[in-house]
Records
---
Amino acid sequence: MKKVLFMFLMVFTVFAVAACNGATTEAPTTAAPTTVAPTTVAPTTVAPTTQAPTTVAPTTVAPTTGVQDTEAPVISGVDDITIYLNAVFDPMEGVSAIDNVDGDITDQVTVTGIVDTTKTGTNFLKYSVTDQAGNKKEETRYVYVEVDPNLIGDEIVQNGDFSLGNAVWNVTDGEGSSSTFAVTDEVGVLTVLSPSWAAWAPRLESNVIEFENGVTYEITFDAKADAVRSINVQVGQLLSGAPWFVDYKPGQPQVFDLSTDWQTFTFKFTMNNATGEGQLLFENGTVNGGVGTDNLATVIYYDNVSIVESTPDPDTAAPIISGATDLVLETGAVYDPLAGVTVFDVVDGNIVLDSSNYVSDVDTSTPGEYTVTYTVSDVAGNIATITINVTVVSLVFNNTDDITDGTFVTTTTIVPEVQDELNGYADITDPEIWYYYVAGWDGAAATFSVIGEAAVIEVTAVGGADWSVMLKQRGIELVAGETYKLTFTASSTVARDIIAKVSDNHAQTFALTTDAATYSFIFTYEGDYTDNERLMFMLGNMTNYVASTITIDDVELSILQQDELVVNGDFNVDGWSVWSQDWDQGTGIPSVTAGIVNGEYVVTTDLLGDANWAIQLFQEGLVLEAGKTYRVTFDAMADTTRSINVKLIDGNGAESFTTIALTATMDTYTFEFLYEGTSTTGKLDFELGLIADSVAGTVTFDNIKFEEVESEAVVPATDQVVNGTFDKVIGWSTWAQDWEPVAGVTISQELGQLLVDVTALGGANWGVQLFQENVTLIEGATYTLTFVAKASVARDMNFVLIDGNGAEFRETFNLTDEFVVYTFTFLYDGTSTVGKLDFELGNISAASVPALITFEEVNFFRNFNPQEEPVVEPTEEVWTGYGMTLVETETEITITYADTPEQWWTINAQGSLVEFDGTNNAIIFTITGEAGQSYLFKIEGGGAAKEMTHIASGVQEEVILDLSSLTETERNGLNLVIIFSNVQGQTGTIVLHGWAYGNVIPQLTTPFGVVVSATEIVWGAIPEAMGFEVYIDGVVGSPFAVAAGTYAFNLDALALDPGTYNITLKAIGDGVNYLDSNLTGVFEYVVASGPTQLVTPFGLVINADTLQWGALPDASSFEIYVDGVLATTVAAGTYSLDLTTLTLGAGTYDITIKAIGDGVDFLDSELSGAVEYVIPE
């Protein structure tokens, strides 16, 4: 008999528990975790949906003594309990309440909550009783409803016929999906309200199954849908971290096309994985099958799901070759045909390739077209063959023409450098001429001349530096991110070295010989744009120099022909172009500024130029068809009344136009015309020049459209204008997590800046993303990202390049509230040809907060400059003292310091942290320090850091540095330990006997979900706490102790005078497994002299058409509102409502609640926040 694991999902109604939102069988671009930490929401006392609280009137019994009764009753028999589905449950069975004075008062116990035995899950009950003296006692319990194991049977898939309702089946939503699952007439009914963009969500999950390695299984199920659509079926193990899923049938995609009629589907797979636990998963997201993706949001029906052991079918499937794709290589590249190519066979598993599996004619030394053919066979003789094309190309450089007379044809004299003696002897020589510099004051001597159309430099004395003799030219234009090649021919009468240099940052040394030869070097310019950079041939004192005559000729600066990798990186691309007259015919040259401001396009000019066309706002590329009528519609205004022309200019130059008089009010204008030309393309042009009586100033545009018209009506979806509303950001996209915790982001572009408004972070670093896709990548190339950015509030941000195979290259940046230039350079050693540039703006660290982030000048480019070798982290501990003396032995390190300075951080001892695993959350140092002296221990690395101060006892002791506040990823980046003497004037030694890695005792969760009512304070359950302390400022007896398992404190019993009191809470730990929590924030408790306003209803939740909310015992009743209209009233003590009793039609409704007071002691509450109620069609 097979071992079958039985798993239930328990959903607590008193807490909002986050669903598993990313255990994906298709990893997302930025991998999402499969388990999101629970969000702590105020605990609600869940009221019954089918019965009112049991309340029996207390019996009045006079006290028998004159001693005041202050002892609360004891409630027994309310331990947590597990019952079976559809069982009869009496909440008072076995429950008793005994009071030390009143005796047995069980009949006075009030039970709040409901146990729904019709479905599996967790139910919460609250028991309350008060004795005659007013002492109140409350207890809570959980009632777990499970399926009787005797009813399940021993099938591999449990409850596959849904005869036990939805027992053991679970549905997970994520990546923005929304769904409901129910069992009707023993059929599983999955209603897909909103599918995810990914295939996996929503996902219907079976029980956990123990699969045996080497066994073949056959899966069978019946399915249909209300509308034709596809589903994907997976078998494997869900994981809580990357890679998120272990596929038990790799290479066997199982996509099934559902119709509106029942069909039976079946497939087999053989388990070839040592890991046994897994699940059967029905994926109902965006699945691309044979019926398209138009009907993803529909109802899907499942039944008769089974898995049985079987025998494998005959192997007729050929192996699957992956990673063999067409390539483009550069000349000289190292090419391995097997790199990145894998083969998987359904029966044989992974097949290892060797050189016998391919035939290649690729020659990377010669540009051309080549082919590689792969051939692989499995054990059964099935053969797979695939051929790829490999293109070898050389880098193409085009002359920039920035070198003036590089062939020395027109230059007759090389002039001396002109310097500004009042400005540090700065070079102020005119650009675009050849000139020289000789440091005669440094002993250098040389003559420069042009002979035979070449520069000839006779160096008779080299001086003291390489720059002592130079041939130069200014006026070179360089653009950030572009790659250049400097080429020249040169020779020397005696072999020697020279240096060619462009700007101060790009240089190379060349060894000249007596024969003329061509030399070149490639560099990538990483500085700011300039049109006045210098080219310098440095001929002075350097390695391998000698006085000689040097000839230089054919100097050329060329630029690499390449596509821009980032679209709209300067945030000036908006779909529109502006042109203005740039010559003067006597009236001056217009100065024009233009761009998007507050979602409108604003053009400002100081002059109109000499014609109507002198200033133009236009968009090209419109498609025209003769005989069609077109309509231009737009909003516009001018700061001063003026006229503009609206024109359509076709590809042949034919024009259709009208003149429109603008006013200072934004109005809508139209221009309609019949196109009778012969061209197929055109240009929409707004002329803003010299037209009639127009004056210079500002013109503002919005909502520009160019549409087809038939029968005087606009043809739908024919607008050809790009970004006519000026609210689109060309080239950039955003994504925000749309499940709890929901993230939020909007972007806009204004005057060369991208404004990214992050309003909510989501639950992870990837919760908010700004990105561009389909960025071209070359294996083995180095890339540099540069950008300028700031944040309205200082925060962290990640950049990550994600290639087409999911490989990531990332860096974390610390943004400030001032613009800063950020740079990240990395070697791309992946194998994909495309990637995604992604700025992660979500929940990265404690330093990540919602903020307005402003970007300027994002540039991503291939970098040909030599890169420094990465620092290799030591594999053994290496200690260094800075202002401290270190003596190391095999067992300990003695650190000596003297007279610690005021800037104590300038002296320290630093040691490398090796073999540290981020799963540890603490470092335990064993030290002996000077008694009473203060030391600071710090660990850092990877952009994260943690520190603590410790006062030494003078004897050997342990110091625990708690790292639990850092994420595991942050802890994995830690690599350096620093020890400081952190008080001025301290002198002495500290001995480090060693350290160990471990885990600290966790601190209890700070009490959460705190609600203060007129009579009590309640909070969320923390079952690990040994009790709680309630602090009330100014009240005798504070703090007040609350027993473990009790999550409320009776404030009314304190009989406080009218006034406002500050209350805080603390959870108490046992000191062994848990430490005390932090104190909560301050909560106000107001004791009023008149009526008190009721607390606003809280904890609203809708489960299976039942609305539930938190208990408010002081309320006289509750009013339920649907879309702001009073729908019904609920009696006091009842905290739920069956929404089906409202007889609402299909649609989405906002449900709110108001607590109603008695008008004497309590006033009505405010209206609650809304909870959404969806009734499907």
---
Amino acid sequence: ESDPKADVVLEGSTCRFKNLMKKRKKLSKYDDMSTSPLHHAAEEGQVELMEMIINDSSFEVLNVTDDYGNTPLHWAAEKNQVESVKFLLSKGANPNLRNSNMMAPLHLAVQNLHNEVMKVLTEHSSTDINLEGENGNTAVIIACSKDNSEALQILLNKGAEPCKSNKWGCFPIHQAAFSGAKKCMEIILKYGEEHGYNRQSHINFVNSGKASPLHMAVQSGDLEMIKMCLDNGAQLEMMENGKCTPLHFAATQGATEIVKLMISSYSGSHDIVNAVDGNHETLLHRASLFDHHELADYLISVGADINSTDSEGRSPLILATASASWNIVNLLLSKGACVDIKDQLGRNFLHLTVQQPHGLKNLRPEFMQMQHIKKLVMDEDDDGCTPLHYACRHGIPVSVNNLLDFNVSIRSKSKDKKSPLHFAASYGRINTCQRLLQDMSDTRLLNEGDLHGMTPLHLAAKNGHDKVVQLLLKKGALFLSDHNGWTALHHASLGGYTQTMKVILDTNLKCTDRLDEEGNTALHFAAREGHAKAVALLLSYDADIVLNKQQASFLHVAIHNKRKEVVLTTIKNKRWEECLKVFSHYSSSNKCPVMEMVEYLPECMKVLLDCCIIPSTGDKSCRDYHIEYNFTYLQCPLEFTKKVTPAQDITYEPLTTLNVMVQHNRIELLNHPVCKEYLLMKWLAYGFRAHVMNLGSYCIGLLPMTFLVVSIKPGMAFNSTGIINETSDHSEILDTKNSYFIKVCMILVFLSSIFGYCKEVVQIFQQKRNYILDNANAVEWVIYTTSIVFVSPLFIGIPASVQWQCGAIAIYFYWMNFLLYLQRFENCGIFIVMLEVIMRTLLRSTVVFVFLLLAFGLSFYVLLSLQDAFSSPLLSIIQTFSMMLGDINYRDAFLEPFLRNELAYPVLSFIQIIAFTMFVPIVLMNLLIGLAVGDIAEVQKHALLKRIAMQVELHTSLEKKLPLWFLRKVDQKSIVVYPNRPRCTGLLRIFQFMFCTKETRQEIPNVDTSLEIEILKQKYRLKDLTSLLEKQHELIKLIIQKMEIISETEDEDNHSSFQDRFKKEWLEQRNSKWNSVLKAVKTKTHSPSR
């Protein structure tokens, strides 16, 4: 399709087209509207150019739209181009297309008062004059909104519907009323009369919100339109959905003249002056709410009830007081409004007055001299609170002073036994507290408790108002306990208000050790809520570390509630050792804190273990470079408390802490260098020797047994004198060669088995039920029993078949059990663990394995029963099992019998062997291999950690058997390791080379740390700058507080800024860009050389 612009140029209208384009370029708003030349020509009224464009283009160009959905007809209508509109309509342009704002050309013409264009559009046969536009507005409604009476008359003459509503249910008459279109209103009413609607019914049409035209006129505030509505019969009693009459709308706006007009024009019987809305509010309520005092004065003059109440029991006086409408308040009081009326909460107007700024000063002085108002100063609300309670709670000094001048008792109590001082202290009203305490003659008020036994000091501390606490203490407040046994320090620590706590502690240091009914101190509360700063503060003031009634110290509480910051703060505190020692050996839920950390907060335990590693300063590659490992926290919990509270009847299993790590699968802790060195220390001290001795004693039975099996031909009878050979005539010949060695070996096997029996019996008494649960013990019994039967010819004669079968069982389990012994050694233990995992995988797949074996075994028995290998069901299943391992024997079992015609069912037999080959050697075996390899990869991932867990179990069982004096002799609380020196010498080094993996220690090279040091310097400079800025900020705050002479300062405790500042510093340290750079530098410089 050819370009229309180029076509116009080719037709000889180059100059006109260029002039048109120049004008368009000056208007930047058209640059990105994707407009066509026809849009511009229509807007400029270039009819000839339009005709050229249309003739050279397709029919669709007439209705092409720009980016906002406007057609050329829209552009022509908006610019009042009558000729363009006529031409486009004559060419077939659609007048009913709407743009993105849902506006058709007719809507634009009416809206822009282009009535000539509107006439052309309405005269066109295809124009829908009732077409809905934006928000459902028709051209009639738009005409009313613009007071376009000429257009409205033309539309009605052309048959437009005057009663078609928009999406809000508003009719044209509503729009005319709201827009103040009086001419349009008259046309509509007259048109309605001509078509059967009398004016009174028409003027009272309601929209979807039940609002009449009078409601709309009042909203717009057009007095002339309101008068027109009233003259045409608008009803004042009509209510919209909110149950408001037009009068309520006018009263809310404070439109006094409109209210006067409507009331004066009303001739009905209803009391419209006292009409109520949905909330039972009268016009006076509405005027009172917004302080329209002139309107209120008028309403009272025409009979408004000044004591009527709304649905919440509020009179105009109460409503005016609550909204600080003081002109109305003084007016109502001067008119004799009842001051005894109370709202739903039992508050009179005086309760509300004292809450407002300047309080009672807002009332005229003469009112406060009236006796019926004076009586209200001691009036109580539903909670028993007087106006003085309210003034103290909101901290209005003027109100407090005025009430006290009326001799109001400061000892008045609310229903929960709170005095005004309780309220002032609870909300931190320092100036109010000072005023209340100014004339106090004794300290009874200062130390009186409320319903819960809480004194003002408790309430101030609970909410963290440190200055109020300081004032109360200075005035003589005592450190009493509430009904729960909580002191002010308990409440302050519960909220973590460290500034308040410091004020209390500086005044009374002994209060740190006060207990509540549950035996909790302030430390318990701070720890439970996770306030690390509060805990550190209490520890610095030498707070006593005690157990509560649940046998829990503050450290137990922090650990159980997973308060990581509290635990870390305690670990870094100088009183950490003292905190660690306070626990009960008899409590099942609050054990040693170290064990509790392993269970609940392993990350904190890791930090504690990190503190146990102390490297020496110096060159890390130097031979004398060493690292000290402290094993204090891995010792038996009895070691922590033996100097404090010795417990003679408490026993812990060996390696208690490490066993807890194993129990809760804390692999990251087990792999910690301190734990690994602790186990290595145990191994070098006695583990190696004990395991070698155990292995040696085991070999006393294993080696002779192996010699007997290897040196004697299986099946031949033998005894202590030699080997018994049977001749061809069934006579027996005794072969005495090697008889001495045979006798010695038999005796060693027998003695080893007897010794094994004794050992197992001892273990039964030691382990009791756990002995039965260990499968290895059953293997031991089988080994010793079959070994004794094998060497029993030392004493009695038994059949050779029985002897050798027992020998076969014994030698098998002897060597299998020896394999299990070797898993205790690092070098080969990992592979034995892998073997166990593969066996478990095989056992899990046994179900599939067994059913496949039965399926193919029994089917081969039916098909190949003529062959010896498949002659019985049992033999067939065993042969099938052999075939599963790859020994299919296709030639002998299938091919040759088929060639000799000895295969009973050849077709079915070959189908079965193909199915067997597909299912078993390919599918099943690959499945098992895949599972095994997958498990091996998983085992390799955690092999080292599993080995450590296994070592813990082995050392535990070993220490249970060793005497206590020996363990105390070889056990060490700390060791010094020289990484650059060999750890073992002599036989131990050879054994370690054979059975243990050499642990490679990566040396950290010396590098230039100048960049790291420079980054640290910059970090500290920024830190100092931050500290300086915060000090300046605090100084500015102090200056501001000093300048606040009149107003009540919201004297909140500094805990907010203090705690927020701590959190902010912590977040800044965590997210600091400098820390990221520093971490990167450290990672790079400390990375091991490869």
---
Amino acid sequence: MAKHLIEEQLEKRILILDGAMGTMLQNENLSAEDFGGEELDGCNENLVLTRPDVLEKVHRKYLEAGADIICTNTFGGTPLVLNEYNLGAKAEEINKRAVEIARKVVDEFSTPEWPRFVAGAMGPTTKTLSVTGGITFDELEENFYVQAKALIEAGSDVLLLETSQDMLNVKAGTLGVSRAFEETGKELPVMISGTIEPMGTTLAGQTIDAFYISIEHIKPLSVGLNCATGPEFMTDHIRSLAELSTGYISCYPNAGLPDEEGCYHESPESLSLKLKGFAEKGWLNIVGGCCGTTPAHIAAIREVLKDEKPRQLPEATHGHVVSGIEPLVYDDSMRPLFIGERTNVIGSRKFKNLIIDGKYEEAAEIARAQVKNGAHVIDICLANPDRDELADMRGFMQEVVKKVKVPLVIDSTDEKVIEEALKFSQGKAIINSINLEDGEERFDAVMPLVKKYGASLVVGTIDEQGMAVDRHRKLEIAERSYQLLTEKWGLAPEDIIFDPLMFPVGTGDEQYIGSALETIEGIRLIKEKMPRTLTVLGVSNISFGLPPVGREVLNAVYLYHCTQAGLDYAIVNTEKLERYASIPEAEIKLANDLLFNTNDETLAVFTDFYRDKKKEKTEADIPKTVEGRLAYYILEGTKEGLIEDLDAAREIFEAPLDIINGPLMEGMAEVGRLFNDNQLIVAEVLQSAGVMKAAVAHLEQFMEKNEDSAGKGKMVLATVKGDVHDIGKNLVDIILSNNGYKVVDLGIKVTPAQLIETIRKEKPDFIGLSGLLVKSAQQMVITAQDFKAAGIDVPILVGGAALSRRFTETKIANEYEGPVIYSKDAMQGLEQVNLLMGTETRENFLAEIAESRQKRLEADEKRAARPAKEITVKPVRTVKDAPVFLPADVRRHVKKDYSVSHLYPYVNMRTLLGHHLGLKGQVQQLLDAGDARATELKALVDDYLQSDLLKPSGLYQFFPAQADGDDVIVYDPADSKTEIERFTFPRQQVEPFMCLADFLKTVESGEMDYIALMVVTAGQGVMATARQLKEEGKFLESHALQSTALELAEGFAERMHQEIRDQWGFTDFTMRDRFAAKYQGQRFSFGYPACPNLEDQEKLFGLLKPEDIGVQLTEGFMMEPEASVSAIVFAHPDARYFNV
């Protein structure tokens, strides 16, 4: 087929798409009359009938700016959307008129040297099949058909399905478009543009890879992204698309995210620079703008991209691919992929009965269980001869797509049922199956569906003569099928999955003797002759009729041999899959004998061996004794069986307290040992503590009034005065209180006076002080002094990020009569208090503490005796001069209730899961590999991020500023000359003598420079919710909520910081670079070495007034809520972190 003119242009250069129509129409200040009256006010599409002159003017401005492609004003042009204004009947007229308006202006500008194009724009409608419902697939297809037909007939050059949030809508759209092509006899190139939300998927949940795989079959002119976000959120998705797509790629982002007044912050310069970055990486073919962009943006994009080369189309980027909500990009190393077989009414009685009872949601849970146990794909078969298969498929598909994200196998011989199922699946499914039993009849029935919806296809080795048993017949039928599918139907070899068939070895049927080996060799031959195709087997068929335990062994051994021969897919029950490596050699031999030397004798031996054999537990057996099981529940962090065994233990032990101090404590001791041995993570320890709390709560009702389950000792615990950080302290509370200690937790910002009063009242065995900041470490010194004056000398345990063993031994211990013990974390604290409270260990432990401190003091004395080096060089300013970077404005930007979904990509999961929740290893690799623990923790924090518990707010403002020696002078933004504040920063006393003030122009220079100040928070109400969860014994949930709020605040700080840098005209690309702080425009927070004075927070608060977003300053100059971040930002290119 001859190339379309637009394809010829795309081979030569990057084409420019126009910018926002809505933004330009808003700027026209149109009245209700312009739209056609009050009831039509806001219906942009109707302007094609009432004010075509305005639309013509907008199109002309974009063409003057250099746009190659002009989109028609038909985003909401389906009858469905127009009917919201009762204009559905005018859909054809409106769409045709819109094309005529665009066509007229485009033809004025178009020349043979520089052709311009009209894109018939088709929005996603106001319904989504996967999310909102409210419309059927067929109704939606009809709407798209009506619109597409009008756009084609009126003379569009291409069709653009844009802002696509749900692949099912896109599929309905492409079917409508195809029907319009047939009706009009005219086929146009089709562009598809998806919308990925900041959370990283479409609204309906697909990643960009799954989105592309699901639509690749229509061979679109381009696939790309638009709307939802600015370019920075699109980086990873466009990169993925560039790696996967064999077509052209489009990208037309919003001008950033809207601010509090609905204004988009990306200037033409900043947006074009970011898009240039994409083009330089070779990712782009079509570029433009969406919401908030104007002709100025398009002109800037055209200018920066004029010399950039377009992305070259790769021949092939992938082998076999299928998709559900998630993609499955197959390679040989993944063999064999498991197809879960239990959602099949023929093979599972449980599933069949749930379908008969109409319990579709419960039936879908079976699919979820298969995925949880390792199924890569799910097989769905509802062919019950006593029921309406079509109705069952419709009922079940609606539920299963909500439960599983993996690709689906639609297993039916009825093409109407197959098509119905495909109308519910966003992804590219596998159709199972067709064969040549009735000649080409099944091919002719099913292949049109493959072409329409996109699918891979299972092809059985059956022809008019029947099922192929020997290897050569299997190959012969496969080759004939291959030729038909690739040559007649144009199916890619990668989408063909041959089923070489297999037959049971345990039925004694003469004709199938030797067939097990024939199937293995058939796989080998098919893979050798047609290497790009795949193979599949229903493995459990081999063992039909044999004893249950024997079946599992035989299936595993046969699967092993088939995989060695090249099998790609295996249909199995993933919940009952025996591991080949775990099968004893003698049993492997029994299986091999039956498979490859099938006769009455081998069958009898195999059957006799397994006849009454029960499946033994392959994992370590649950302990047989009650005591053993109680420790086991604590260790496993499970409450299943706990209450029953606690009641059983009350029959064995004299008192409930003996149960707590016996088996339950032994379980907790083992948890501690495993944590210290790096075999458990923080999250798992918290789950164990939750089980312990539940056990104690259950037993307390049976205890005497004077009995105390916390009998090992008492602790008074607090975060010191001026410090609001309580996550670490809470961990100490949870760990100790569930290990037999009574903890009196005084909370945060606790003064020495409050502590002394409580200590006198409670008479604790030891005290715990926590604090995160450098200032908190000093506060601990003051607290120790006050304790000493009050005559308190019980042991103190101290911990927190700013503390060290050295500081503890040299500064705090110096001011106290009793022992001061440094604990690096809660588990070490537990170990230390156990030593402290143990009658046999206390003396030794305290002696070690004293000895360690003595050695430290002696070493410090020796060091102090050495002569100090003299500073011979006088501190001077060494930072080189840089131009002034002007911000876009100096007004105060307030962002209340900021969308958490927009901040999701900025949340550093490595810190959240790895540091806060203690996940060991490379977090991303663990998540990619589907590690159970990592996935569970990610799901927990994702739930919080998707709930309405977290409500981020923030603000920032630029201020004129200059340096005066080591001072930063801040001027009134109103006049840029009245000094309104002054910060004094320390200077390094050794080279390079840096000071934060050096990053600004000096007063003497006569040039005005700028700083930005910012505050963000994500902590409103978090502490109260976390406390409530803790009281309910939900320790992991409580800790995770606080941790998520902290990291969300950090993420918001990154987002706000990025907007500040955008306003200064700086660009950066990857989130990884952002987390590593590799960019111009560094931010500094008070309390860190370069600006250590927390008191400066008061000045920042005076300038910004963050009380408006619910952030207060404590007496100790800490922010409340704890999940808050403040900073000062400098634009100087050499600004970086340094110690003073």
